[in-house]
Amino acid sequence: MSTPQQRIRTLVQTLNRYAREYYTLDAPSVPDAEYDRLYRELEALEAEYPQFRLPESPTQRVGGAVLDGFETVVHAVPMLSLNNAFSPRNDETGAFDHAEFLAFDERVCKELGVSQVEYAAEPKFDGLAVSLLYQNGILVQAATRGDGTTGENVTENIKTVRNIPLKLHGEKQPALLEVRGEVLMLKADFAALNQRQLEAGQKPFANPRNAAAGSLRQLDSKITAQRKLHFFAYGIAQLSGAERLPESHMEELALLHELGFSLPEGYFGAYTGAAAVLREYERLAEHRPRLPYEIDGMVVKVNSLAEQQQLGFVSRAPRWAIAHKFPAEEALTTVEAIDVQVGRTGAITPVARLAPVFVGGVTVTNATLHNQDEVARKDVRVGDTVVVRRAGDVIPEVVRVLLERRPMVEKQPALGGDLFLLRRNSQSSFSGSLEPLHEPFRLPETCPVCGSAVEREAGEAVARCTGGMLCQAQRAQGLIHFASRKAMDIAGLGDKQIEALVAADVLHSFADIYQLDIAKLQTIKDSKSAATKWAQNILDSIAQSRTPPFARFLFALGIRHVGESTAKQLAAAFGNLDTVRRAPEPILACLPDIGSIVAHAIAHYFRQPAQQKMLDDLLQHVTPQAAAPSPQTRAHAAPEQWLQRLPGIKLSEKRAAELWQLAGSLHALQTDQALPQEWQDWRRQPAHATLLQDIIAFTEALPENSAGDVSGSLHPENSSIAGKTFVLTGTLPTLKRDQAAALIEAAGGKVSGSVSKKTDFVVAGEAAGSKLEKAQALGVTVLSEEELLGMLGGAD
Ligand code: IVH
Which residue positions are annotated as catalytic (predicted)? Predict the structure, then answer.
């Protein structure tokens, strides 16, 4: 009989061997049930004797504690990138043009002084680069690539990846091994995950890469464990204490395989000379759709490590390797119909409905035609045979039409213009002219969803439905945006629920959200008993959203061109909704980072009577947090600034300054008869006179920026924070990073992602890494959360 400790050891060894056979060698030697039986025995023993638990035990793979954030890891050997070579296909023959790869080969040959080089070639995996560190055979750390110098510590998550050994295989363990490779999600696991996401009412992932990235960056490793990630090794960054050292890339791969890592079976090897590499490239390109994982090219590396060293690096990429990318995947299919889709902002997008076609590993049935100009340029019509392309994670698109396959009809003048459908190649006795069967596509003049007019602004490619929230398509999407996390943050009211509530005619406007009750919510749930708690939770989060920070509220409205950062800008400048609503367009355009297009969109939005009403209704239920406008706004909105931005008169910076100097006062701008004629002509027009009056009244009401004297105003700026740049790093004891950032921004400070000489303060929490080091090196003041809160709370 063995002792519990011995038994644990035997079980771990046996289970790890079975796992290696299953996941890495793809050759299981025992049925799953046998594995499960031993696994349960091990679990029970470990529970009884936790002191004997081994770091490489397979029970470590189920995930554990939830982290607050990822620590930073400085890579001992930087994780570099690769230069790319593209091989576009010839439009007619479909043959590859390998000029870029051949140029790479030529450089390598020249540098090494040889006529032919031995290369190693392997897939370019479309996943995420990670680095795995083993000490005495045990996985001790795993990190993402990050910026190449520092990454994130994802050890707990990586341990859940079944084909990554927790302990290296074999008797002799190197003292230190750092493996580089790619974490990805197999296509089949991706499809299953998306199926589960859909069933749970959650958003599907766009592609396996995003799914892998999202899964690897989970703070709760139990979630990662359920996601089924996969790892392929493609290199060694550090190795010491090994029996022998590899001399080539292929030897590195062989060693990695012996130690328990998966390699892309059947798709890696050594090839001498460019021609052999290119043959392999073409084979890989052909097999690409059938591979169980996504790849976007082939990585070609000089095989000899000595030659690699001789070639060295240039600006963060090796000169001994190249990512030989595949061209985007293309296929032929036919256009069955051309529909238009209406987006959240009313954008009308023509979409080609296609006969299903398999491209780049997925079946494509729709492709975007972008906008009217694009449809016209490509002249895509119903019935056309088209080339569709799918590149990486972008939406499939129609590349071009095969005009020679367009269905045609012959117009027969002798028969009074009757049309006969003909096959192109059929023998025909008709002598009339051939015409396309279908007319060119034109965007509808009214919205297919709500019937409102479709308009296209001058200079814009996109046409839009003018219905706003009157349009059901925009309504649902507008409401989804309104309730989303970065907007009003109404938890539980997601895409599915809102779409159902809109379809059930319960939700029409933002204000309706605040009139929801349990009964209304239950109309979209079948089982009433389970629905009560769910509905109550939603009502609680709706209640919590009633006093939003002003910037979030503005962002939530979904005004065109007003993203999160513009909303923050507007909120910081104007403080409250009333002021933004009244702000004349030329004043809006004076704010930093808000150009004339954005200013126009904002002013236009608030001018619409329907929007006014919708906002007033909403304000019955919601009270955005309000502050006085910032004193800087008055400086931004100085007359010499807004004078340059008036409609109907184009004043250069110089002319605006001259005019303002001549006038000397706002009153004179309105009345002085001695001002230039052009100006007097402009202001004579009633609409211009009113605008001038509005601007003046508006700017005069803004708080003065008399330096140091802001004590009487309500505005939130804080002199120790306003205008200062902050960088947040590490985990703060109580605040989340975005909360701390919001507090700083609300007090007039700026938050930046990286430390430089311009940084005024670094706020550092637990496990602060390289940013803290950089701050210390540059002598930037480092604050704790408590100190930051002190500054925020302190009177100035
Ligand atoms: S070798 C110094 N091999 O490509 C070169 N990289 O652009 C180190 N990648 O971040 C990279 N498959 O994520 C290498 N077989 C492969 C690869 C590969 C995918 C990715 C990797 C890296 C990026 C470099």
Answer: 124
The single residue listed with the structure tokens 């507008």 is 478
Distance 116 CA to ligand 1 centre (A): 24
- Ligand 1 atom nearest to CA at 313: 2
In the structure encoding, which two tokens stand for residue 374, read together?
A: 């694009």
Beta strands (DSSP E) in 174-261 are 176-184, 230-240
Asked about 724 being catalytic, the answer comes back as no
More confident residue, 702 or 268: 268
Contact indicator for 349, 340 with CB cutoff of 8 Å: yes
Has 410 been labeled as part of a binding site?
no
Q: Which atom of ligand 1 is nearest to the CA of 123?
A: 15
Query: Ligand 1: distance of its center to the CA of 467 in Å?
Result: 48
Alpha carbon distances (Å) from 703 to 182, 461, 667, 708, 712: 56, 40, 19, 13, 10
Domain boundaries, the chain: 4-60, 84-325, 328-410+437-470, 471-546, 725-792
Asked if residue 595 lies in contact with residue 459, where contact means CB atoms within 8 angstroms, the answer is no
Please state the CATH superfamily assignment of the domain spanning residues 328-410+437-470 in this structure: Nucleic acid-binding proteins (2.40.50.140)
Return the pLDDT at 91.
65
Per-residue pLDDT, 717: 58
| Given the residues 110, 124, 222, 228, the one annotated as active site | 124
We find that the CATH architecture of domain 725-792 is 3-Layer(aba) Sandwich (3.40)
Distance between Cα 327 and ligand 1 center (Å): 18
Mean pLDDT of the region 542-563? 94
Q: What is the pLDDT of residue 80?
A: 92
pLDDT score at 531: 67
Q: For the residues 573-598, what does the mean pLDDT come to?
A: 93
Domain range 84-325, CATH architecture: 2-Layer Sandwich (3.30)
658 is in an annotated binding site: no
- How many angstroms separate the CA atoms of 614 and 748, rounded? 30
Fold classified for 471-546 = DNA polymerase; domain 1 (1.10.150)
Query: pLDDT, tens digit, for every residue of 762-789?
Result: 999 888 888 888 888 888 889 988 888 8
Which residues' Cβ are closer than 6 Å to ligand 1? Answer: 80-82, 122, 124-125, 129, 145, 182, 234-235, 299, 318, 321, 323
Residue 33 marked in a binding site: yes
Beta bridge partners of 529: none
Closest CA to 398 of 331, 340, 461, 343: 331
User: Any known ligand binding at 717?
Assistant: no
Give the number of the atom of ligand 1 that is nearest the alpha carbon of residue 128: 13
